[in-house]
Amino acid sequence: MSLADSDRELVVSELDREPTRAEAALFENLWSEHCAYRSSRPLLSAFDSEGQQVVVGPGDDAAVVALPGSEEGDGDSTYITMGIESHNHPSYVDPVDGAATGVGGIVRDTLSMGAYPIALADSLYFGEFDDDHSQYLFEGVVEGISHYGNCIGVPTVAGSVDFHPDYEGNPLVNVACVGLTNEDRLVTAEAQEPGNKLVLVGNGTGRDGLGGASFASEDLAEDAETEDRPAVQVGDPYAEKLLIEANEALVDENLIESARDLGAAGLGGASSEMVAKADLGAHIELERVHQREPNMNALEILLAESQERMCYEVEPDNVDRVREIVERFELGCSVIGEVTDGNYTCTFEGETVVDVDAYFLGEGAPMNDLESEEPAVPETDLPDATLEDAFNAVVSSPNTASKRWVYRQYDHEVGVRTSVGPGDDAAIIAVREAEQGLAISSGAAPNWTATAPREGARAVALENATNIAAKGATPLAAVDCLNGGNPEKPDVYGGFEGIVDGLAEMCETLSTPVVGGNVSLYNDSVAGPIPPTPTLAMVGSKDSYDAPPLSVGSDGDLLLVGDLGLAADDARLGGSEYLAQFDGNDRFPALPDDPASLIETLASVADDDATLAVHDVSHGGLAVALAEMVTEDAGLEVSIPSDDAAGALFHEQPGRALIQTDSPEAVREAFDGVAPVVELGTATDDGTLTVHVGDETIETDAAAIGERRATIDRELE
């Protein structure tokens, strides 16, 4: 990739001269789609990012959100940070290192805000599960995430895994991180004062990751796994752990004025963006950068994306103390320059290689004006499968099957904050500093958004909120990772517009501000574009660390909150795993009329003493949700009065939940005027699931369900 002719003309006009080689490379990377959001920024104003709880919104390394009761600003306020990133192209070229460095990058974004990382969530998307190359990528990505996260001691507590044929040539690896800080410790990425020193801390700079930002801004070629390998960074989690602790010590002593993680475009990206945010400049002497490879030139030092590095703004009187702390953690430390009130300049061995206006470099990229096409509405083409075949296929699908093979490789207990771990609707982390539980849910639904981008994205937001409410928490804020194909294709851009609008609409309806995020486009390969994929990582808060279980006990009534799908128009199967398994088509189901009240009421009911279990109904529909609630010690006997067994059991309208309770009448009363409540049956003590649908019956038990749901374990063991 090189600087486009139109961009070069704009740069020449601004500089009144031809750019140097280093300047051209800087503009190429910082004006790339990956950094400048040239195709997506015009759409992102659709998101509501404001609210009383929002301390720092979009535009920084991570967002900062005040927990309830901490908004007043008394110095002791407890804040969380939220960030999400994609490492899609690198994870195709080198799945282990690509995924690992994605984790490292989002953790350093957390450090940039003066926060300590307390939880990770990963959402992963691959081609069809039975494809050998998809399995190779899947195993490598999980290995990379688990190795890096486990080594740095940050628990991976939530996430999702989806398989879809359109990810065959371009998997997605989206990683979110939640951190913990307070008002006194808060740091931002905006430079503060001319004369302050710029200090580079962490690993030595090498030649890995050169051109990573531009590499992430173009379609994957057929030979990407070999030709693009130099653009993939190599991570060192043990250095990252030292960096986490060194950063904590620097923040403790109030030694950092501003900070930026070295990610896309390396030192050039981090340092120029830091001063551009304040409309300031910088002077950097590149030969001062500590290096791990010999004979590096100015361009390599400026743009290499070597990992485990931070750029700090430090007052001159504090530089020696910073160096002392950093060297105690056996990390490199270089004073590379200072903040100025002029241009952004870089010299190398006495020669000026960069001299540009920082704001123009960071914000001057022109936005793209692209054509879009409305996605087509699928025609209805329903399969003719027996109920038994459909149940077996949907429950055992890799998309709905147990993900235990994945999360058992992650340390989700480290840090001793995890109250509810992976495998549930949402995780819960104990924030003891505020005596609150923090619920975390992350994921998307490619079948939904491939069928109906806008409505599917609205459903993704509602689904994550339902996960959080099922644990008795109220949604607080969200970050998104918007993944799409080549935006220059009108149908692809139309789908991307749809997921942006849909996500924004539902989050606003739920009064859940989208406080930050990431955009990843050009996820296109010789296999074609990916489905529009709006990963959402949402957090919610509650006044305790406890939550109702997902599994039923042996006593109590089972209720469904939400539409059963008895009317033909309600039971739309579009986007369902049932249709994916049997090659059918249908319209996407209608969403609930009042999702905000539904979520608020569900959270309240989930925390009621009479509630015994709660489980969100989503992927795989009612059939999968019922199967997941059964254990060896407790079963369910359910009756569904419907002549449309497939519609009732397999449609995936979001915003529904199964509730086991000792007080059915109280649940009905709570949801009166909010959502329908249907009594399905009762719990048993024999571990059997019996479902009567019209004149048909499914009967199975926990052992058989476990065998069906062990698809991933069975294949990869």
Structure description:
The protein is an alpha+beta fold. It contains 26 helices and 28 strands. The strands form five sheets. Strands 8-10-7-11-9-12-13 form a seven-stranded mixed β-sheet. It has a seven-stranded mixed β-sheet with strand order 23-25-22-26-24-27-28, sandwiched between helices. It has a six-stranded mixed β-sheet with strand order 1-2-3-6-4-5. The mean pLDDT is 94.
Write the layout of secondary structure elements.
Elements: H1 5-15, H2 21-30, H3 33-36, H4 41-44, E1 54-56, E2 63-66, E3 78-86, H5 88-93, H6 95-111, E4 116-126, H7 132-152, E5 156-163, E6 172-182, E7 197-202, H8 212-215, H9 224-227, H10 237-252, E8 258-261, H11 266-276, E9 281-285, H12 298-303, E10 309-314, H13 319-328, E11 332-340, E12 344-348, E13 351-356, H14 358-363, H15 387-395, H16 404-407, E14 418-420, E15 427-431, E16 436-443, H17 446-451, H18 453-470, E17 474-483, H19 490-509, E18 514-520, E19 524-525, E20 528-529, E21 533-542, E22 557-561, H20 577-582, H21 595-606, E23 611-617, H22 621-629, E24 635-640, H23 645-650, E25 656-661, H24 664-670, E26 677-684, E27 688-693, E28 696-701, H25 702-708, H26 711-716
Parallel strand pairs: 4-5, 9-12, 17-18, 24-27
Antiparallel strand pairs: 1-2, 2-3, 3-6, 4-6, 7-10, 7-11, 8-10, 9-11, 12-13, 14-15, 15-16, 16-21, 17-21, 19-20, 22-25, 22-26, 23-25, 24-26, 27-28
Features:
alpha+beta, 26 helices, 28 strands, 33% helix
Structural class: alpha+beta
| Arithmetic mean of pLDDT | 94
First and last CA, distance = 41 Å
| Tally of separate helices | 26
Q: What best-fitting shape do the alpha-carbon axes yield?
A: globular
From the alpha-carbon coordinates, what is the Rg to the nearest angstrom? 26 Å
Q: Main sheet?
A: 7 strands, mixed
Strand order of the largest sheet: 8-10-7-11-9-12-13
Kindly estimate the percentage of residues that lie in beta strands according to DSSP. 15-25%
